[in-house]
Structure formats: structure tokens, C-alpha cells
Amino acid sequence: MIGYLEGILLKKEKEKILLLVNNIGYEILIPGFFMQKINSIKTGDNLILYIYYQQTERQPKPILIGFETQEEKEFFQHIISVAGIGPLKAVKAINIPINEIAMAIETKDIEKLKMLKGIGESAAKKIIASLSGKMEKFAVSYSVEHKIEETKKELKNQVMQVLTNQLGHKFSEANKMIEEALKQKPEIVDPAELFDQIYKK
Length: 201
Fold this sequence. Notes:
By secondary structure, the chain is of the alpha+beta class. It has two domains: about 5-135, CATH 2.40.50.140; about 140-200. The chain has helices at about 30-40, 70-80, 85-95, 100-105, 110-115, 120-130, 135-165, 170-185, 190-200, and strands spanning about 5-10, 15-20, 25-30, 45-55, 65. A five-stranded antiparallel beta sheet has the order 3-2-1-4-5, sandwiched between helices. The radius of gyration is 19 Å and the shape is globular.
């Protein structure tokens, strides 16, 4: 089962991307709220995704759905636990940030949930009935955690570009160097400090 992929963004379409990982191209569906951000990323750039993977007897063709964070993936798994909302419907429905959806569920805001693509009043009521009381984590903590994740990801991307494009390291080698440096000093938030830690040896 595939749970995480790192690679190069080869192609962007309306609802999916093609990601090159170790000379293999993976077609990955992307939720609407995240696709808006991916559209600002250039093809050829590095991309890191947490993957929801599904393959069943009724759906023998594997489905890969990509998320920016583990928490977004966990939220998605809650959504598809609601009767009548499968992965393909959910990936199209989540077209606004998950903290807004989570807050709507906790406050029983049916009109807000009806803003989700393909979600009518009946489905909105089902979502509230199934998930109310389980969404506080996503409604409250997501914003803060997402900002931290964003900062760390931007830091990695900046350093990765220099290591691969200017200093000639391979992607896998550069990624290993970055991860080892951050493992030793996870509090690093500045690119120059991360370079110092990488080349400390």
C-alpha cells in the first residue's frame, strides 16, 4: 500500500496530477482546496504528498488521492466513513479548507456544508449526524499546525532547490541530507541555519 510519495510534478490537470517518483509516473487525484495551491506550483518542482490508497474488488483500478499533510488525509478518512460518501465523491466535495468544513460540522451549519461540491441537504445532515463531536481537532488545531507545516515545507523546498540545482546533489541524496539535519535539530526554521547543520560534518 502506498501512503507517502515524493517526486517531481510532471503534469497538472483539473482534478489530478502526474507525479514522477523513481522513474515511475503516478496519477494522483487532488481535492479541490489543495489543487488551488498546486496550481501555483511549477511543473518540474518537487512535491511531497500523503497518499490515500484504495483498491477493491468492485474498483480493481487503484485510486491514489494526495494530501499536503497527514492531518488532511485523516480528515478525509473521516469524511468517507459517512454512508454514501465514497473516496471519489469526497475528493470532489472537499473544495474549501478542512478547518472550515470541520467547524461547519461542529456548529451544524448545513448551509456551509452545502457549499461542498455534490453535497446536498440530505448528505449534509448525514455528515453532521456521523461526525459531529469528532471534528474539534481539525477545526481548532488545523490552522496552527498547518502554518507550522507550511513553514517547514517551504524551508525544505528552498534548501532542496539549492542542493539540487546549484550544488549538483541528486534529489534522493539532498532529501536524505535535509531530513537528517532536521532530525538532529527539528527546531530549525531558517534556510542558512539548515545549510550550516547539513554541512556541519
